[in-house]
Amino acid sequence: MEQFELIPGRPPRKVVVDRARKLFSSLNLEDLLLELGINYDKSNQHSAEWLPLEPFDDTEYDCRMPEEWLALGKSADGKKLPVLGQGLSSTSTGTIWRPIIIVNYDLERERYSGYWDDCEKDIAEYVELARINLCFNAEDPRIFAQRVA
Question: What are phi and psi of 23, to 5 degrees?
Fold first, then answer.
């Protein structure tokens, strides 16, 4: 969050936003979670020991409402663009964070929907995720890791 008007002695908004974007993209979410003692590697744990995180999600860590996240994907001319992030994906080899393209939000079910961004061009794999399993590229991954912790 940065003001649009220039404040004497502070860098312009575009510079602050660009610096934050570079910082956020340089941080690895899995490493941040490991530092907080969170390991999604299921290869050495029993699935019966895992509880879903959704009921324990603390929305106080959210800096935007779902509508605001989706509004980030609108261009100046009103064209709808995707919102990028990382989603938690369970595979046969374990649980990993994958790039995702978010296109919608279901208010009733409290789920974001989109497509995995690392799939082949011909096959778009649809996915629905709870907010606790979705880190947007425009949010601070350090705060998101604290939210999961």
Answer: -65, -50
Strand order in the sheet with 134-136: 126-129, 111-116, 94-106, 83-91, 134-136
Helix (H) or strand (E) segment spanning residue 20: helix 13-26
Structure tokens at 93: 């080899």
Lowest mean pLDDT among 22-31, 47-56, 122-131: 47-56
β-strand 111-116 against 94-106: which pairing, if any? antiparallel
Contacts of residue 11, defined as CB under 8 A and 6 or more positions apart, other chains included, come to: 19
- Amino acid letter, 106: D
Using only C-alpha atoms, the chain has a radius of gyration, in whole angstroms, of 17
d(CA 124, CA 101): 10
* Of the candidates 84, 127, 77, the residue with the CA atom closest to the CA atom of residue 106: 127
Residues 26 and 19: their CA atoms lie apart, in Å, by 11
Asked whether the whole model's pTM tops 0.85, one would answer no
Q: 135 forms bridges with which residues in the sheet?
A: 86
